[in-house]
Amino acid sequence: MQTTPVLFLLSLPAIVWGRCNIPAYFHGDWYSRESGTDIKTLINADKWDSNEDETQLECVDIFIHSNPGLQQDGDNVTMLMVKTGGTNLNTCYMCVDVLWRTPNILQYRQEDCITARSGSQISLNDSCKSMNPWYGLPSIDVTFTMFKQSLEKINCVTTFEGVYQFSYEVDTGGGGICNHPDSQIKACQEPGSQYVDNDVFVMTYRKCLDVSTSKNEQIRYQCMGSWFAVRSGIGYTYAAVADTVEQDTREKFKCMMTLKNQKDANNQIRWVMSRFPDCTSLSGVYRGPLKLVLTRIPISNDYNTPRCSFDKDIVGNWFIKRNRITIDDKMHFPPALNQMDFYLSCQQTNGTRYLLSQTVLGKCDVNYVCMDIEPRNERFLQLKVGVPFRVDLRELEDPGLLFRANCETLADTSDILLDKYPISI
Ligand SMILES: *[C@@H]1O[C@H](CO)[C@@H](O)[C@H](O)[C@H]1NC(C)=O
Ligand SMILES: *[C@@H]1O[C@H](CO)[C@@H](O)[C@H](O)[C@H]1NC(C)=O
Ligand SMILES: *[C@@H]1O[C@H](CO)[C@@H](O)[C@H](O)[C@H]1NC(C)=O
């Protein structure tokens, strides 16, 4: 016990004055593409070591631009660093600003070597531009984006959630827009694990015969997180993704950008995506190497493929006031009716009772609901609607069980009347 303070005192002089530790949320193996070159950087508490040359950087002093309003796992920092190693005998101090974006994404700017002016000494406050409130932290245009090579799992919800059809246009090659109905993004939890976070999404490209730059390809992207940043006075949402199987690092990571709250009449959402791992090539939702226009679509999977059909008396167009409800192989309620934009597909039936699977446009979840559907008279169709419920995979193996347990008696029913004719009021 008594030796501890002595050891501590003895080790003190060995520490270079002002040396600091690089915060843990920056540690890891990072990839960036800088002016066409692949850069790999290893960061730990002591050093910032890139494969660029023989040298490495050590932190001398650090300022943490803490942002208490943001509940984030990391902070932006400005570091005064010193170059070590290499053959150049002149000591080089430099300022490095690092913007913490997500656990997988950093953006940084490294200044040139500082030459001390006579009369002033090199220090974080005196030598680093970004410590001057006039300059502040660098904007996205002047930073390099670093992608973490050993990814941390991040929920995709902040990037994509649900199912989309998309059109795409590759900037180079002049091929034009490919808008194929089967080009889709599916950002859903795996079936059967619907309560687990989803950290990947699947992007399926389909080829258009008249678009030479289009392709047939399916890519599983892992989400690297998303962040908000201002570019040319406009606030954009950025996201980064990693192709889960791509070996070539240059092709693996992509930067994406969109505008939140796009006011589009057709409810479409524009995104742009980079070709290489960089974010500076994205300069607006109409300008980028790959332009995407996303439209929410109903999910189609094993759960909502129809397994029975509606009685011929009830197939057709129906109305609630002026809103059209169509019943063909599925029953579609339009969005106008209190956000009920859902699709019901017949799974089992006995007489006038139906077991239906229910999906909401663009969402991944599948619920089940029982209905008793019967014409009330020549004009009206009466729906007695049960309470929606979830099922797990085991229950689906014996579907008769679902019907017996839920549809034979319709507890807590509410009635909906569908009219053969639209009425305006
Ligand atoms: C880092 O700085 C940027 C640009 O000033 C800001 O938008 C962002 O919120 C900051 N991030 C954190 C974690 O403080
Ligand atoms: C450097 O600047 C920061 C923020 O402006 C301030 O809190 C700190 O005391 C300054 N340090 C020195 C040594 O002047
Ligand atoms: C259909 O419902 C009737 C009356 O509720 C019942 O007796 C019969 O067993 C059911 N049929 C099937 C195949 O479940």
UniProtKB/TrEMBL annotation:
Name of the protein: Uncharacterized protein
Residue span, DUF7044 domain: 19-130
Domain (DUF7042) ranges: 155-294
Domain DUF7043 intervals: 305-388
InterPro entries: DUF7042 (IPR055470), DUF7043 (IPR055471), DUF7044 (IPR055472)
Keywords assigned: Signal
Tagged with keyword Signal: yes
Recorded superkingdom: Eukaryota
Organism: Magallana gigas
Signal sequence residues: 1-18
Keyword Signal applies: yes
